[in-house]
TrEMBL record:
<keyword id="KW-0285">Flavoprotein</keyword>
<dbReference type="GO" id="GO:0046872">
    <property type="term" value="F:metal ion binding"/>
</dbReference>
<comment type="pathway">
    <text>Cofactor biosynthesis; coenzyme A biosynthesis; CoA from (R)-pantothenate: step 2/5.</text>
</comment>
<feature type="binding site">
    <location>
        <position position="367"/>
    </location>
    <ligand>
        <name>CTP</name>
    </ligand>
</feature>
<comment type="similarity">
    <text>In the N-terminal section; belongs to the HFCD (homo-oligomeric flavin containing Cys decarboxylase) superfamily.</text>
</comment>
<feature type="binding site">
    <location>
        <position position="297"/>
    </location>
    <ligand>
        <name>CTP</name>
    </ligand>
</feature>
<keyword id="KW-0479">Metal-binding</keyword>
<dbReference type="InterPro" id="IPR035929">
    <property type="entry name" value="CoaB-like_sf"/>
</dbReference>
<keyword id="KW-0288">FMN</keyword>
<keyword id="KW-0436">Ligase</keyword>
<keyword id="KW-0456">Lyase</keyword>
<dbReference type="GO" id="GO:0015937">
    <property type="term" value="P:coenzyme A biosynthetic process"/>
</dbReference>
<feature type="domain" description="Flavoprotein">
    <location>
        <begin position="16"/>
        <end position="185"/>
    </location>
</feature>
<keyword id="KW-0460">Magnesium</keyword>
<comment type="pathway">
    <text>Cofactor biosynthesis; coenzyme A biosynthesis; CoA from (R)-pantothenate: step 3/5.</text>
</comment>
<dbReference type="Pfam" id="PF04127">
    <property type="entry name" value="DFP"/>
</dbReference>
<dbReference type="Pfam" id="PF02441">
    <property type="entry name" value="Flavoprotein"/>
</dbReference>
């Protein structure tokens, strides 16, 4: 990979990406990832393992990348590829990353060109694991992943889906476009200040069933919550995304828990919050639900329909805030041992149509969260749009305005305010 990759004169050099491919059945999907990199202007050097070449041959990688391909440290020795490739890279991404490669990377074993490259790289490194569920959940793999994350590597959680043969479970390679988006965020220079942190993000809008067909819902698309999950993963976090009725591809690196109702969302969020460093409640949670759900479809008749009696849903954000207050009070009274887990940073969202800041400040006082992201909705604002604007209010009385821009930028601005609170 030439260090002069790019153009001439004032043309900026193209970002240099090393695409490591290890020996799993998902190796063929790396062809799509390679195409996404090259078509977006990146200079890519593919470094497969010997096992990967049993799935996809070197001519395919060379033709798609426009660069030579080898798995051996002995090829073109005069160019010292086992050192040079890693030294010159702006990003190394391994997709798929097998349990074998994760183990070698964690323990510094360098038996081929890819593992040598991983040892010499001083740029961000992203691993996209793919393996059977039992292999991903094995204590040895979990320990290796933890080691890599502690060292600053980004290890994306695998997706849930069809595996080799008839098996289904967690271990599927995330979709190549999602891996590409995660890598694009890393290349954009996002800090890895969430490495070693577990964050929980809720997204989408809950639905409260009236009957098996109809429901009470809202207009939330989940775009802002998904942007928060993606940017957190790119900044090194372990991400649990609780998604309510969202028709979006799973963000690479996030463990996605799908829910429908407010009660289901509450259960999932509170469970995940037990080990979380931060909880961001970006989902639009229904305030009310029908007191009774018809077990059969309500038929249309000439008579006026019976009114739907509503009851309040639990206030999840307020419950999180109350749990945090109780935990802090217990710590102050020495009821909890010194050094025990700190309660998570709590971030709420407030979608308002009028008196935006006044309503936001009142909600912040009620909920007991650390930060409240207040944004105006309606008339083409926020819901379902690619951009957003907000004001972030803090429990300390401060406020930060986030100007209108892509939801990824809004997400980064929110994490910029969360990270100082983590320490």
């Amino acid at each position: 990979m030439s260090s002069k990759a790019g153009g001439r004169g004032d043309t900026p050099p193209r970002p240099r990406v090393v695409l490591g491919v290890s020996g799993g059945i998902a190796a063929y999907k790396a062809c799509e990832l390679l195409r996404l990199f090259t078509e977006s202007g990146h200079e890519v050097r593919v470094v497969p393992t010997r096992e990967a070449l049993r799935f996809v041959g070197a001519p395919t990688w060379a033709a798609l990348s426009g660069n030579p391909v080898s798995a051996e440290v002995w090829d073109d020795v005069h160019e010292v590829p086992h050192v040079r490739i890693g030294q010159e890279a702006d990003l190394v991404v391994v997709a798929p990353a097998t349990a074998d490669v994760l183990a070698k990377a964690a323990h510094g074993i360098a038996g081929d060109l890819l593992t040598n490259t991983l040892l010499t790289a001083r740029c961000p490194v992203v691993f996209a694991p793919a393996m059977h569920t039992e292999m991903w959940e094995h204590p040895a793999t979990r320990a290796n992943v933890a080691t890599l994350r502690e060292r600053g590597s980004i290890v994306l959680d695998p997706a849930v889906g069809r595996l080799t043969g008839a098996d289904t479970g967690r271990g599927r390679l995330p979709d190549p476009p999602e891996i590409f988006e995660a890598c694009r965020r890393v290349l954009a220079g996002r800090p890895r200040d969430l490495a070693g942190r577990h964050v929980v993000v809720s997204a989408g809008g809950t639905r409260e069933a009236i009957d098996p067909v109809r429901f009470i819902g809202n207009r939330s698309s989940g775009l802002q919550g998904y942007a928060l999950a993606r940017t957190a993963a790119a900044r090194g976090a372990e991400v649990t995304l609780v998604a309510a009725n969202v028709a979006l591809p799973d963000p690479a690196g996030a463990k996605v828990v799908r829910v429908e109702s407010a009660l289901e969302l509450r259960e999932a969020v509170l469970a995940a919050a037990e080990t979380a460093d931060a909880v961001v409640m970006a989902a639009a949670v229904a305030d009310f639900r029908p007191a009774a759900r018809s077990q059969t479809k309500i038929k249309k008749s000439s008579a006026e329909p019976d009114p739907i009696h509503l009851v309040k849903n639990p206030d999840i954000l307020a419950e999180l805030g109350e749990r945090k207050r109780a935990a802090l009070a217990a710590a102050v009274s020495s009821a909890r041992p010194h050094g025990s887990r700190r309660p998570p940073v709590i971030v709420g969202f407030a979608a308002e149509t009028d008196d935006v800041l006044a309503n936001g400040r009142a909600k912040l006082a009620r909920k007991g969260c650390d930060l409240l992201v207040v944004n105006q909705v309606g008339d083409g604002l926020a819901f379902g749009t690619p951009d957003n604007a907000a004001v972030v209010l803090s429990a300390e009385g401060g406020s930060v305005e986030i100007p209108r821009g892509p939801k990824d930028d809004v997400a980064d601005a929110v994490w910029n305010l969360v990270t100082p609170l983590l320490s």
